[in-house]
Amino acid sequence: MGRIARFVRNDSSTIYHIMSRTALDGFPLQDIEKDHLMAIVARLSNFYFVDLLGFCLMGNHFHLVVRMHTEEAATDEEIGKRYRKQFGDDAVIMPHQVQEYRRRLVNLGAFVKDIKQGFTRYFNKRRNRKGFFWGDRFKSVIVQEGTSLVNLLAYVDLNPVRAGIVDKPENYRWSGLGYLVQTGNRHGLLDMNLGMHEWNEFNPNEIIRKYRQFVYETGAMDTGKGKQMKKEVVEKERKKRYRLNRVDVFRHRCRYFTDSGIIGSKEFVTEVFDGVKHLLDSKDQRRFTPVGGVEGVYSMKRLPGAVGG
To answer: Do residues 218 and 252 make contact, with C-beta atoms less than 8 angstroms apart?
Structure first.
């Protein structure tokens, strides 16, 4: 069976959850490797027309949540500016190169390829080795703004808690929440949306506070996958003025955020599927499945083996 085409949208800004795993055994990404991978992600996020919404770099895989923009955002002036920032103030982009870069710098596959190839070169040189570092094609899921996004970001930030590495997600510096809390979002690396703009919250301090509350309360729930946050840790944060006003209890279903092709409202999933279904060989109808515990959020699960790449 051939590879299933990746779901991408080129006609509008789109959020993607990107996942990629190493081909090596064990946990080859140690602290220094994570620092370098994070530096590559930061540099390329400033080069490409992409907003970095969240991330988590683990010992054998990484998660990125990004918003890819369209070619309309890639003006000639902005392309030249980013080209010089990337290659030096004296670098000159030729007129015939502009359109090529316009297409490339809004391309999801090119963005991830540059990240993975750049890190592989570093890792192989550092370890004096040759060959592949990453495994199969990276996975990508299209994600809707709002409820779907904030649940996804919580899932990503809770990775080190579920793995038993830290008790509190912000104690892990190679994650979005850890970066925000520990560095104050140094260099403006992360887009300060965190899924809260849909609820008309634009105050950065309130966004972080409310998002932390959401992450802690989500992490305290038994999802049947990985470790929960310790009750005493959550209770201590509650006493610091957490306001528990969520009506719908979120039961974390990891498969929706890793094995889906699209997640969002039923209308959003239908709209996106209608725009990408021509990429599928199968003519079968897809079933839109409600995500348990999150009212109004649906998933379109891809064919077995389809997700990845």
So the answer is: yes
Q: Domains in the chain, start-ordered, CATH in brackets?
A: 14-70+106-301 (3.30.70.1290), 73-104 (no CATH)
Looking up tokens 């609820």, which residue turns up?
A: 199
CB-based contact 223:213 (threshold 8 Å): no
Whether residue 207 contacts residue 201, with contact meaning beta carbons closer than 8 Å, is answered with yes
Reported as a single tens digit per residue, the pLDDT across 193-227 is 888 887 788 888 788 888 888 888 888 777 777 78
CA distance 51 to 67: 5
Q: What is the pTM of this model?
A: 0.80
Tokens coding 227 = 């470790």
3-state class (DSSP) for residue 109: helix
Q: Are residues 187 and 42 in contact, defined by beta-carbon separation less than 8 angstroms?
A: yes
Residue 90 identity (one-letter amino acid): D
